[in-house]
Amino acid sequence: MSLQMLGFDFIGGPNSNGEHYTISDGCGCMSMAAARKVAEEMELDPMNPPSCIQFRYAGYKGVLSINPNLDAAKKCFDKLHKEKSEKETRESYMAVDFYFRPSQKKFEIQEEEERLCRFEVVKYSAPVPLFLNKPLINILDQVSKLHSVESYERICKRLHMLLDKHIFSLCSTLTDELRARKRLSELPRYVEYDMLDAINFTQEPFFRLVLRAAGRVSLFKLRQKLAIAIPYQLGRVMFGIVDETDSLQYGQIFVQYSNEMAAFNHGKANKRHFGKKIIVTGPVLISKNPAIVGGDVRMFEAIDVPALHHLVDVLVFPRFGPRPHPDEMAGSDLDGDEYGVIWDPELAFNKNEPPADYTPVIYNEEAGDSFEHDDFQDKMAGFFVNYLKHDSIGRIANAHLACSDLYGIKAKVCGNIALKHQRAVDFPKTGKHSAPLEYNWKGSDPPERFERAPDFMEKESSEPQYHSSRLNGQLHRRVSELSDFLSSVIVQESTNLPDPDEMLLSNDGHDAYLVKAQTDYNLYSYRIKRLMDEYGIQCEGELFSSSYSVLRNRISDRETDDMSFFNTTYVIGQRLWEIGRLTRKQFFASAGGKIEKLTDARGICVDPSEKLRLLSRAYYTIAYYASKRQYLSFPWVACWDVLDKVKRTTILKRGVTNLAIDPFADRLLSHIKLFVRKYEAKLKEFRERVFQIDFEGPEEEYERKCFLRRYAERYLGLDILLFFCSEWGQKQKLFELSPIREEHLCLFVVGIELSRGSFYETPKDWSNSPSSPSADISSSLGRRFFMFLEAMASLQSNRKEIFDFRHFGLEYQHFFNNGEWRVLQQVALDTYLHLVFSDQFDVVLPSTVEKENFSVKEEILEGSCFQLELPSTTVNDNFVEYYKLLEVLCKESGCERIMMRCHPRYRIWRRRLVPNGEFPRAMRILVTSWGKKQAIGQLRQLLAIKPQMDLSADHRLAVRIIPEVTLELFNELLDREKVNWAMEYQFNGINQIEEVEESSENAEEEEEIVEYYDDSE
């Protein structure tokens, strides 16, 4: 670190305090030579160093980007001044390796102490995927609606499509070999997945366990945060740096990204490998967490600058302009802040909203009391305690999200919360906490502390919840239905796994190897169990996919928002890597050799001996047939390369030629063929019913049969696919629950094939002659049926209101609205997910067994408690027909039992009257239900309240009508049973309490008695 200098910052215009902005705040630069040395120290590829590193060194903090001009200056200086190397002379030439800026200097340090300081790398630039979140989706939704209807519809449709893409890409890793291999290669490589050529990842139990855990945790995060993945060709997360070449003008940026994603790998042998580098040009949308106001998400113009081609996977901002672009987005800077960069044209805004003013507040206070050095630790501890007491950024962020959803992002209350949010963000730096949130109404301005929460925040137990019609609510409800369904399908992570590969199991006569393998397995299982128990890791799949639903003993509760690599996940990965290293070393030692001599320079055993092969089989057998808890990772961590060679050799010896390229589709095809062979008579009846033309029948039926017969004759095997789909529809009661009939389902199947391009349009005059083209699709029926389910399950993302068959060439017009085909979409989605995650075909498909004994009896569950609001007049004047209402709700929802009761904090006799002596306008009740998961969900949907979300509406009026809407809903439910909202008792004041208490005693103090309350405080 001898070649360094402190340079100068780029300065912008004045802020609202009159002080000038620092455009290069926190961003310095380094030479290419220095970057390569740093990469080598970090065991990365020195010929391909990171373009930017986040660092800490001797009082400096921030980022350093590569600047080749420093290398050129050093070369020029060394050539002209071979004998003169004074520091001042080098600085005048900028002939240094590290160029720091004053904005990076956070505290002074003695010169002699600086020599002892180490250069610490916190993080480096790399390809990082981008995920959306609820605040960002809220901004995309509401700002686009302010711009234009076209922009709003475009962005909403795109986000629904991205959600489907995210979900189906997760599912495809369990059904498609290529996608499974690609997904595993993106995970930490404790096993070299790319080199396992003979293994089917979707059928091997351990790899399927890893893939399923990664998918399940991803869906869990999807429900919790709406973390929808942006395709990595359309968006990334990048460090922000400043343009050192003066090439970019105000409003322009430079973005170049690596085409391939690089997973973070452990171990000395792993390097960062990048594929093709692509430069982005055109409109780009950029945001910075935490983004809460409309101006925090901005549009820029990306251009190609040859002088910046050495920078990859970073976002380059211009050095010109009155205000730094990073400061316009959540008041960020360039000292290590990461930005979400999206160049998807479907998510672009029409224009930018005005940026918020994030100028820090100046506090005119006198200097604090001086203290001795020995008191420093106590003072620091006191500040930390104060920070914990006033750290309210989470509550403020939730308040802004809830208020902006109900009242609109432009509402005055949201602006006030945004200011408090910024002060809360700066609290660790300034030591000045933000003012608490307001709890009371001020005229027509609602309180900052939200009184009602949208359903996507899932706070039903603490606040009344309403049905949000905004984009966050739409996406959340789709994900919730999916998550609830999967929780009933996947009971345990290790259940319903495929059988072990018999080619890798030990043969008889190798007991000595099994004994040795058992000893090594016991040691391995002890180490893995200890690691999992220490951090509360749910299953082995989560451990090896680094996808954790819950973790104990975290380094920090907020480390998921920390930019550092060195978090709990990193620590677990390092320990797991060490366990794998020891286990692999033990494997070769057990075979009588050393790993260094039996493997090549890459650490791979290319030509294993017979002893190694037999021992690897024993490892596999012991792991998969352990008497106690199974750790399926044991053989793959220890000897993945030897197992691959064993299977290759076995395949060659047996002369196997029909290797499964698509195992999942092959299993599905076998199921279809077995079913058709068993029910040939039904197939014959189906052909007569669907394809046999009646010339005297209705014209519509004639056209339909001609259409289906034409395609069935051209594509051999289509009749079997249509027959199987028809039987599937009958099993799912599709024809009973919707107006869709058998012939319509057949049209859907053909239509999906046409839209995918796998079928060609067949003219009416086409005939099955020797010269006419035809195709045999019998061998691909399994994959085609699965693709049909996926296509129908994703219909909702297309936001279609009507689905018609006119584009099929039919003369008659038959169409379905979204309420009619929604049933088909739902049963297709349920079947699709069941096939992907459960591997039990007979449960959801037409069964090949005489007596179907596959229906799983759902257990009765207790639903989470939620709150409703009712007018206070309901209790002031009359007594509700409580039991009749519960009976109606149970009947409508399918629940076994429903209970409504007062919240313990809000009993009437514990509350004061409002100033005019009347009871408050609204009261709240708690609702608890028991029943099947689907019934509980139906009850929530039945009682969902949809308030008016008009930006120009009176906020107080919009809130006051919510209790009236709930009462009206109850009236409608009772009217269905021809029961009026009859009020049987007239009572008020203390008499109300006495009558309720008396009825409660007669009912043996059952909790079902309705106790009403208000929320005036």
TrEMBL record:
Reactions catalysed, as given in the entry: RNA(n) + a ribonucleoside 5'-triphosphate = RNA(n+1) + diphosphate
Record keyword Nucleus present: no
Gene Ontology CC: nuclear RNA-directed RNA polymerase complex
Domain DUF7752 positions: 711-805
Domain RDRP C-terminal head: 507-651
One GO BP: siRNA processing
Enzyme class: transferase
Annotated ranges, domain DUF7636: 860-972
Disordered: annotated segments: 996-1017
GO molecular function, one term: RNA-directed RNA polymerase activity
UniProt keyword terms in alphabetical order: Nucleotidyltransferase, RNA-binding, RNA-directed RNA polymerase, RNA-mediated gene silencing, Transferase
Presence of the UniProt keyword rRNA-binding in the record: no
Coiled-coil intervals, chain numbering: none
All residue ranges annotated as the RDRP core domain in the record: 17-479
One Pfam family linked to the record: RdRP_head
UniProt record similarity statement: Belongs to the RdRP family.
Protein name stated in the entry: RNA-dependent RNA polymerase
